[in-house]
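Quick check before the chapter quiz. The format below is the same one you will see on the exam, so make sure you can read both the input and the output lines.
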Amino acid sequence: MKNSYSFQIYSSANQLPESWDKLAIATIFLSKEYLVILEKSAPENMSCHFIGIFEKEILVGIAVSQFVDLNQLESFGDRDKCIKSWIRNSVFKNFCSHILLIGNNTLTGQNAFIISENANTTEVLKTLKKAVLGLKEIFKNQGKKVHMCGLKDFCEEELSHFKIPEFDPYLRFSTQPNMIFNVRDNWKKEDDYVAALSKKYRDQYKRARKKATDLVKKQLSLEEIKDQEEVIYDLYYHVAKSAPFNTFFLPKNHFAVFKEQLQENFLFYGYFENEKLIGFNTLIKNGTDLDTYFLGYDDSIQREKMLYLNMLYDMIGYAIKEQFKSIIFARTALEIKSSVGAKPLKMYGLMSHNNKLINRRLDFFFRYLEPETIWKERHPFQD
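Here is the expected output.
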């Protein structure tokens, strides 16, 4: 019997079929309006494609892919000094520099694809694997050899869908968890959250708030984001280059394009000291979820004013006020996010290397180059 599933690869959001957004309704991060942002302001070393999967003529699956060229980066991150950092950088540049990803490397969570409830999930994933081969052919014709293919970020239940022969060569791995903050139904204002904290963490809240009393927090308009673009980028870059591992850096126009495209669904908050921008954070409204996005700050002031912690409290206050169900705090800074009440959700990915010898030892290389993060979960609530 002839397989009725097929795929189509699109290089621009303008090419997407009319029915695309009917499937993308579950998340803003696969909607046409968001994919335009990826197209207009993706990192310099990243190129995006969009995949439609059809059962006969009907669109039953949508996905986003990103090709990342690590050779275009000056640094992968400053966490590990000395020999280990040198080895890691050398390995990535020579053997893993061209990565083809089904998913979104700028976000945490399952933003890779959506499958229609009426579709056969196994057949859609088999077709998605064929689309990966089609993408590899596109890049081969451009003179770019794909070293690694990956899919991210899935919870344990979602991972079970990949138990099919097509994905047998792929290594299943987990990295830092996604930190999720659930807003309780009985919280109507920030004070309700503070009242739920144990004394130790209520004292932490009061201390942080006191430290930042002279800072002014303001939501920036598109024009203000454009006016402050250089300062914003410097603050962002300072934080980004200190991250454990980088596969990209955002372009300077990224936040302006975001605001222009998503408008009220994208919130940009600036923190000012004596009218000077010394930090910012960004939020994306995604249905009942509030997704945290990139931030930046002046490190000396951050420590003195406990700015990062205050940003987390501000996000919680906004989510409660606007009655969001949860805040997606993403990965990194696990302990401090845990201290404000976020809980870890274990995330999984899949990866495969084009070199069969390396692919057989992929587990070893992955564990050596990116060891498990050791951190202590906090329990800030009274109950």
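If your answer matched, good. The chain has a mean pLDDT of 92.
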